[in-house]
Amino acid sequence: MNRILIAEDEVRLAAFLEKGLQKYGFVTAVAEDGQQALEMAKTGNFELLLLDLRLPLKDGWKVLEELRSQGQKFPIIVVTALNDEGTRHAVLLKGANDYLTKPFKFKDLLTRVQSFLVSN
Fold first, then answer.
1. The dihedral of CA 74, 85, 17, 23: what is its sign?
2. How far is the CA of 38 from the CAs of 7, 34, 105, in angstroms?
3. Homologous superfamily of 3-119
4. Residue 45, by phi and psi: left (phi above 0), alpha (psi -120 to 50) or beta?
5. Cis amide linkage into residue 75, ω under 30° from 0
6. How many C-beta atoms lie closer than 10 Å to residue 22's C-beta?
7. At 1, is the pLDDT very low, low, confident or very high (cuts 50, 70, 90)?
8. How far apart are CA 95 and CA 23, in angstroms?
9. Contacts 24+ apart (CB under 8 A), 85-94
10. Where is the Response regulatory domain positioned along the sequence (predicted)?
11. Would you state the torsion angle of the CA atoms of residues 46, 25, 28, 3, taken in this order, to the nearest 10 degrees?
């Protein structure tokens, strides 16, 4: 089973993502802040990270930068309310594999998750 880390501080959205992904057979864990996301990503054998950019303690930008600078290769899909083209471009340049803006349809997220995990 594929393990997905969800870095999201909005409790209701995190629960929605967890429930939906588990329904499709994924094993999930939630990090409520950036520091926790970094620690879990380094030790949890996750195969994909769903990353919000606006996290407490350490924002998603720093999480992305640190994981990539440490050689973490698993796919990272940024899921954020920031929907401008400049942010999207910057996130992809920093090493994110994909970018999805809130609000989104769960089916769109699921398709992206499956495409990364099937290709690995």
1. negative
2. 9, 6, 26
3. Response regulator (3.40.50.2300)
4. left
5. no
6. 13
7. confident
8. 29
9. 87/53, 91/53, 91/61, 91/64, 94/61, 94/64, 94/65, 94/68
10. 3-117
11. 0
The token pair that represents 102 in the structure block? 């809130």
Q: Both tokens of residue 88?
A: 């999207």
User: Residue 118: its pLDDT value, please?
Assistant: 79
In the sheet with 27-31, reading across from the earlier edge strand, the strands are: 27-31, 3-7, 48-51, 76-80, 98-101
pTM reported for the whole predicted model: 0.95
Q: What are phi and psi of 15, to 5 degrees?
A: -65, -40
pLDDT tens track for 7-29 = 999 999 999 999 999 999 999 99
| Helical (H) or strand (E) element with 115 | helix 106-119
Tell me how many degrees the CA angle 58-88-92 measures, rounded to the nearest 5: 80
Domain locations in the chain as residue ranges: 3-119
